[in-house]
Amino acid sequence: MTEWLFQQDAYLERCAARVLEASPDGVVLDRTVFYPLGGGQPGDTGVLEANDGRRWTVVDARKGDGGRILHRLADGSALPGPADEVEAIVDWPRRHLHMRMHTGLHLLGSVLRFGVTGGQVAADRSRLDFDTQDEIDAARVNEALQVLVEADRPVSCRWITDEELDAQPELVRTLSVQPPRGAGRIRLLEIAGVDLQPCGGTHVRSTGEVGRLVVTKVENKGRHNKRVYVAFT
Ligand SMILES: [Zn+2]
Fold first, then answer.
1. Of 35, 57, 98, 188, which sits 20 to 30 A from 205 (CA to CA)?
2. CATH of 95-232, one of 3.30.980.10, 3.10.450.50, 3.40.47.10, 3.40.50.150
3. How does pLDDT run across 117-155, given as a tens digit for each residue?
4. 174 Cα to the center of ligand 1, angstroms
5. From CA 137, how far away is CA 155, in angstroms rounded?
């Protein structure tokens, strides 16, 4: 089991950790700052460094069984040994872009209040798919996004039980993906006065940190689906 430090503090760029397992599937650490691919957000990249100068490039992070996080190494890398002590260092500029984008998609979802059928975060541009036949006015959306960014609303996380979520089904906006059940608790992302929904991703501390985000394209993906792309200007 890996301790998911990024869920407690998304701003941790590095941590000391011990290798639990190392195989061609990836390196499992006892704790990590690397976010694993999921919820439309890419897995983190970065490096693992040992005190003796050995260094491993992490090209991706994925969820493994039983709460493990697999740090995928570049092809052909020599593996660290079990119990090796390493410093896990995330590619922070890339991750911070993902945090800004991911938070920005919550803002987009609060402006366009349709069901969300899919989405993808990337450092350069991101998208959300909406279940709607309505036309989308990009200029109006951009204005509304800018108002939310300038309002600099605080962003925070808290945990609720499965039962508390069941009592508030309106919290679940994403039609295609239900939040994971069975762990007994669900992580809620709250943007004060703007959005409240289950989310396991990494976010910035306030909407001002998202920065200027604009709609770059709206695509019709079937009669009931609009794909909205956003990018930073
Ligand atoms: Zn989120």
1. 57
2. 3.30.980.10
3. 999 999 999 999 999 999 999 999 999 999 999 999 999
4. 11
5. 26
